[in-house]
Specification:
Alpha-Beta Plaits; four-stranded antiparallel beta sheet
Length: about 180
């Protein structure tokens, strides 16, 4: 009977050991699987966080580019800043004490939609020359299409005797607005 009792004890202990081993293996396997799932979820979270940071960085870069594009667009003549450009050249005419007039303004599509201003400036030689120098130093990127300079005799009036005046006429191409340092 002792043998039978020991045998049952042995079978019970063997069964208990196998059961505990099976439960341990099940729990270990579940833990490893959950750990792998957790690692996968952590990797996905890190990837989404990186995408979010990249998205925020891209939005910030886009805003910076938009600001720079807006700043850059100020350097090119468009429909909204043609009038101030013309007023600028008229101011140069007044500052140089010439009789300045704009005879034609057009956008020439053959040269890339550039603004072409045809003008006339009449006055003493020094003043006409000063006007020409002021045009050259204007904060616009310009090129001269044509310039002609001639002298003429102005007939006398009741208040002013006959005198010589210089007539400068020409056309300039305004390509863009630039900040020139003096």
């Amino acid at each position: 009977m002792k043998n039978r009792h020991n045998k049952m004890r042995f079978v019970f202990l063997l069964f208990a050991t196998i059961s505990v081993g099976a439960v341990y293996f099940f729990l270990w396997h579940t833990t490893v699987r959950k750990g792998a799932d957790t690692a996968l979820l952590s990797a996905k979270i890190l990837e989404e966080e990186r995408k979010l940071n990249d998205s925020a960085s891209l939005k910030k870069a886009v805003r910076a580019v938009e600001d720079k594009r807006e700043e850059l667009s100020k350097h090119f003549l468009g429909g909204d800043n043609v009038i101030p450009s013309l007023e600028f050249f008229e101011t140069l005419g007044r500052e140089s004490v010439t009789d300045f007039s704009i005879s034609d303004v057009m956008v020439d599509k053959s040269i890339g939609n550039r603004l072409v201003i045809s003008f006339t400036a009449i006055g003493q030689f020094e003043n006409v020359y000063l006007f020409l120098k002021k045009i050259e130093s204007a904060p616009y990127q310009i090129s001269f299409k044509n310039i002609s300079l001639s002298d003429q005799t102005i007939p006398a009036t009741e208040k002013i005797p006959e005198h010589k005046a210089w007539n400068m006429s020409g056309s300039i191409i305004v390509e863009s607005f630039i900040y020139k340092t003096p």
